[in-house]
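Q: What structure does this chain adopt?
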Amino acid sequence: MNEFSCCLTLGFIAVMFVISAFKIVNEYERGVIFRLGRLMGARGPGLFIVVPVLEKMMRVDLRVITMDVPSQEVITRDNVTIKVNAVLYFQVFDPNLAVVKVANYNLATLQISQTTLRSVVGQVHLDELLSERDAINEKLQQIIDQQTEPWGIKVTIVEIKDVELPSTMQRAMAKQAEAEREKRAKIIHAEGEFLASQKLAEAAHVIATEPATIQLRYLQTLTEIAVEKNSTIIFPLPIELVRPFIEGFTSPISQDRPK
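A:
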């Protein structure tokens, strides 16, 4: 009986030993194999055998990883203190390097991203950070990717998500924007006045060369203001229209005056 129990136990251990040798790796993963501490390379995806005790496998995810870079307090080139955070997209393109060259590639990539974000933002002015964000994102991506490439990491996208400004700087920028809009409004108004004066000068030139046009303008004005029936109309008459009547009334008086 004891011999049967021992055989059963040994058989169970052998079955578990054989089962543990079979490894399944998903399509988006790779299994990095070490044999007695020596790197043997990556295997997968699918089913393969890992010799227990002699070989060890480490799984590496090849999917794109999204990582939030925590908010960093940075002093820009024009001495403005701001807080900047970003988002990072990267993936492992060489599982062997990701396992052998760095202890924790996620943590290492995060630290490199934080340091690079502070360094790059500190070299630009605040206006450049707000207006040329695409160029800064591209520069961040190139620098981080160059530093993580020896680890088998490919950084695809780096995006600055938010720039937090001090309240005093926000008020100053609001005043600057308001002053800029007022300046543009005054310039547009002045240009309109200039164009209107040019048109009036041209109209005056036409009226001076053709005296009949002033009469037509008077009639047009009378037609426009006559639309309002509940208003009192005061319409000026040209002196040329009433001069014959004035001369008719004043000529007899001048003849009766004693010499």
